[in-house]
Amino acid sequence: MRRHPVAQMVIVGAIASAIGIVIALVIDWFPADAAEQAGPIDTLYDVLMIVSVPVFVLVTTVTLFAVWRFRMRPGQENEDGPPIHGNTRLEVIWTAVPAILLVSLCSYAYAVLVDIEEKHDDQLVVHVTGQQFAWRYRYPQPGGRAIETTALVLPKDRPVLFKVHAEDVIHDFWVPAFRVKIDAVPGITTEVRATPTKLGRYPVVCAELCGLGHAVMRSSVRVVTPAAYDRWLQEQTAPAGGEATGGATAGGEGEAGGGGGADLAALGRETFVSNCGSCHTLADAGTSGAAGPDLTTALRGQDEATLREDIVAPDARITEGYQAGVMPDNFAETLSAEQIDGLVAYLASVSR
Ligand code: HEC
Ligand SMILES: [Cu+2]
């Protein structure tokens, strides 16, 4: 036995590698797979693990073996090791083998990337915007209009091109079930593709530390049948009418003088859906955000002045169980005065 240290190491290594590979493949690493992209990505991951485990085992066994075999014995305290002048053949091998391995794995990974990023003619374009600490979605419509929502709804089996933006700092749009993830960078538009293949609701996560509320910067994607998707699109356009879909800006201002209480509350509801719903659940508005308090119940009996302060200066009074610094404190600048009046009127009316 003593005379064949290499053979010993090879046997130990082979057994340890086999065990490692079996464990690596048996563990279910991945969440649900809900897009065409998931298959090739998961296979790539498995192949990387199958190749990495023996490399890890090789390095570890050689290290442990050397520590044990060449340890210092009593009486050797002042001895030096034998002089070594290198070994050309060994050095060629340990350079060439990793190089071949890395080039092959990179080529394979590149081929997978090209495959999953393939362009499709019938693609659906969805704009995704990250802003501390929520996601917003925009669906361009024929005629230059767009639907803005805080709900990501996608039809099954239709290729989607996500165009990803950031309003303030770097975020990262990640849909684990689609195996899709791309940075959202202020000033540029990044792109990523996915073709949903399974009906259901899956998490959308911000994967780039972006501030205090990073951990709650979550949303979800709902994959529905094409018919349900068309119906949903219709609902987004229909009740809002012309003026409403544009949302934020000029349209609202012009109307300031007129408009009774009902109009104001309608504007408030619409402003709520597109600016607040990603963080707040409110039954009347049909939103289901979970980063902030559920306003269906939290608002009972609050007067308008308190509501206004909660919106424009959220850090003045922190709801118990929640953190300061998560709710944006610049709504006074990003929303028009009328939109804020609308929000206050609307929230007051639904909390009665
Ligand atoms: C990024 C997530 C986020 C967004 C977007 C957001 N909020 Fe909040 N909101 C919170 C959190 C977290 C709290 C609890 C901490 C606090 O009180 O500041 C909160 C608290 C509140 C409260 C106080 C609730 C109570 O218990 O009295 C009101 C009212 C409110 N938000 C309204 C709004 C409105 C209206 C908007 C849209 C203009 C909005 N929020 C947008 C996260 C958010
Ligand atoms: Cu973020």
TrEMBL record:
Residues 121-235 form the Cytochrome oxidase subunit II copper A binding domain. InterPro entries: CcO_II (IPR045187), CcO_II-like_C (IPR002429), Copper_CuA (IPR001505), Cupredoxin (IPR008972), Cyt_c-like_dom (IPR009056), Cyt_c-like_dom_sf (IPR036909), Cyt_c_oxidase_su2 (IPR014222), Cyt_c_oxidase_su2_TM_dom (IPR011759). Its EC number is 7.1.1.9. Its main location: membrane. GO terms for cellular component: plasma membrane. It catalyses: 4 Fe(II)-[cytochrome c] + O2 + 8 H(+)(in) = 4 Fe(III)-[cytochrome c] + 2 H2O + 4 H(+)(out). It is a multi-pass membrane protein. Belongs to the cytochrome c oxidase subunit 2 family. PANTHER family: CYTOCHROME C OXIDASE SUBUNIT 2, CYTOCHROME C OXIDASE, SUBUNIT II. Subunits I and II form the functional core of the enzyme complex. Electrons originating in cytochrome c are transferred via heme a and Cu(A) to the binuclear center formed by heme a3 and Cu(B). This is Cytochrome c oxidase subunit 2. It comes from Conexibacter arvalis.
